[in-house]
Amino acid sequence: MSPRRLIGYRLGLSESDMRSIGKFIMTTRIETKEEFFAAVESFLRHVDASVLKAAVDDVWEEQKACVELLPGVEDVIKTLADRGYELGVISNIWHPFYEGVRQRGAHVWHYFRYEILSYREGVKKPDPGIYRLARARVQADEYWMVGDTYEMDIMPAKAEGFKTVWFLLRPEREREFLVKILRGELPGPDFVVSDLRELITIDGRCVKQS
């Protein structure tokens, strides 16, 4: 669940209130609970400050603790790095979840040479600007995006010239796009995988640096 909804459900916020803080959370560089509380308080002045602070504290700590690595992901990352691929991350993310990822995946995170993070860049997927940032920072013959949503990952990456691998983790949420792809109304990805471990079988063509 997104941070805005975690906070929104804790406080009984309206959909409008959740939308008002949602983009802000993901596109503003805030790295402490205190900074975050001060920022969202300006959006939610109608919420009791002590109640808001308790919700912010709880959600911040939960986001750091809830990270889990998918099965086999360590082997996939290491294998791709050993094959000479330049690995990076393009993510809609905020600081506590980023901290959780770094802590839980500390033994593999050093393989990622590039980080394009929405809360640091001020832009989030599916805005094509975040993919342009990635291209500007990495000089390569080919760019590949591995993502689990068509709208946020595959479609905007293809529009910016990336090859794409659709990690179809939750097909029930992607039904609309799957139907349109089958009808020829939308371009399909270059590859589809249902398990990240399949990446190492795609003929060595993902995210390879020249």
Major pleated sheet = 3 strands, parallel
H/I helix tally = 11
Count of folded domains: 2
Q: What is the CATH superfamily of the largest domain?
A: HAD superfamily/HAD-like
Tell me, what is the CATH class of the largest domain? Alpha Beta
The CATH topology of the largest domain comes to Rossmann fold
Categorize the overall geometry: globular
Give the name of the CATH architecture of the largest domain.
3-Layer(aba) Sandwich
Mean pLDDT: 92
Portion of residues in beta strands equals 5-15%
Uncertain stretches: 206-210
Instruction: Report the strand count.
Output: 5
Structural class assignment? mainly alpha
Gyration radius over CA: 18 Å
Gap between N and C termini, in Å? 37 Å
Question: What do you see in this structure?
Answer:
- The chain is mainly α and 210 residues long.
- The protein contains eleven helices and five strands.
- Strand 3, helix 10 and strand 4 form a beta-alpha-beta unit.
- The radius of gyration is 18 Å and the shape is globular.
- The C terminus is likely disordered.
